[in-house]
Structure formats: C-alpha cells, structure tokens
Fold this protein.
Amino acid sequence: MKKSSLEKEINDLYKTNDKMKNFNGYIYISEDNNELFNQGFGMANYSSMMPFDCNTIFRLGSITKQFTAMCILILEKKGLLSIDECLKNYFPDYNNGCCITIKQLLNMTSGISEYLNHPEWKGNEVPGNKALDNYYTYNFIKDLNLDYIPGEKMTYSNPNYILLSIIIEKVSGMSYPDFLQKNIFSVISMTRSGYLPVPMHFDNIAVGYKCISPVQQEVDTTIYNTSMGANNIFASISDLREWDSALYTEKLISQEKINEMLSPSSVGNYGFGWFVDKEIVSHGGLTIGFNTMISRNINTKQLIIMLSNVEGNMDSHIYHYYELIKESIKNVCNR
C-alpha cells in the first residue's frame, strides 16, 4: 500500500463525507512499522488555534483498561499474584468474592453489574483528587448482586477494572499511577503518558470539547471519572506507537502471556483489555471531552490509532470514523 495513495483517499474522504467532516483529532496508520498516514484534522485548542501533532496529549478513556491488564500480568510475572486467584483473597468483604477470579475480571466474565447503570449511583463525576479514591466506588459496588454466574457469559462492565486497580495497589504497595509509570511507561519510553490530572509541566495538551460546531463548547478539565483502572490515562500518538511496538516484544511480559492477553474467553469476544475479532484486537474510549480508538492486526502488524478531542454522539462517534477509515484502507488495497 502506498502512503501517498492512502493520504489522498483519507483527505478526499474528509472533504466529501458528511460524517468524516466532523472528525476533530489525529489519525495514525502504519503496517509492519511502515508509516502510511500521520495527520491531524481540526485543532487541539481552538482558543489558541493550536494544531495537533504526534506528541499532543489526549485522554484515552477506556483504552486505559489494556494498561491495567498489563499491570496485573506484570505482577503475575513477578510472582506476586495469580490470575486464577479468587477475589476473596483481596476483598474479604466483597459479596460473592469467593466465586470470582482475577481472570474473570480481566475478560469481563465475572457477572459484576455495571454500577453506572444503577440509579443510586451519584458519584460518576467528581472534582479534584477525589477521583483517585476508588474505595468510594468500591464501597458502592461490593454488595451489588451479580448479573449471572461467573464464567457463564461476557458483559462489558467497568467495575471489573476498578477492582483490578485496587488489587494492583494492594499487591504492589504502590499507587496505581506510580505502578504504571515505573513498570510500563518508563520501561518502554512512553514519556508523554500518565494518569490524570496531566502534570503542570506538560505542554501540547488537547482541550476536550463537548462539540465544535456550530460553536466550540469546552468541557471542564478539572472533572474526570472515578473509574481508576477503567479510565483516566492520558497519552500521545507517539507513545501509543511505543505501546504497540512493545506488544510484539517481551519487554514487559512473555509472548505466551501476551497471547493470552489478546485471546478471547470461551464465552465472549474480550481478552484482557482488548476486544478480539480473529486477528484484529482493538478498543475504543469515550470520556469527558474525548473519543478514542486503537486497532491492531496482529498478523500484518497494521496499526490504526484515532484520537479525538470531541465527545462522541449518535452522529459522530469514533466507531463511525473508524469504519470509514477501514473502508478507505480497503479501497486503496483493492486498486
């Protein structure tokens, strides 16, 4: 596939397709380490008219989950836990904790209910450092009834990864953000990644928007979700390229464990922090002011990263843009 051909295809799409015209963010595409597309659309900050580049920082939303999963596998590599252990070992007061394993948290087969769907939940968005206190969320979810018998089926549910982040802290004796930094970001040179809030010394940070048309509506960047482990990591395109590259090596964990991470359970299409569709592993993210996607073809080493600083909606969601980009790649390949 020629880089120039794909560049023309996607830029023509952006000019002519009504849905694609609404995309505001950055797109990166490569295959087997050969860059095919690397371009921003719109602005990272409309107030200062700051454009995007590959080092612009975005909030990742639920792409966070794959990093949480990696933390758990690193702890297992160190001999500090087993993913076959039950939750009761870490949460003695957790309802049904003896019936659920760490592995079932990782692949979303635990049966744990999505707390965000409960009308009693009031703390989804809170200001300041309170967002780091997952025990506030834990105290709400620990007594919820299971939706089904663990291992019976797969249901995407954020509490699985909130519990994993607490396990990481209990086992490592470190905060979740510090464990990420020491054991992943520093190891593979993800120098513009971390856990919210973004440190003051960082620059080139994308502003999050509710919408950009007909007028730009910024979101409140002092607010973020309470879902530690399930949300709240930030990164750049360049850093996500380092993450992708690392998953083809044993810098973090063994190839055997990477294969396990990227394999679905017997009852669903979710691995450990990744949706799995044959050779394609991917994950999207939707958080306050941002909408994101990473997709990897583990056979051809094709990588697609799409980061937007505008919240998705029914008409302009990252999955719509992702499908259009996949169609563009297909068109170029078929010529």
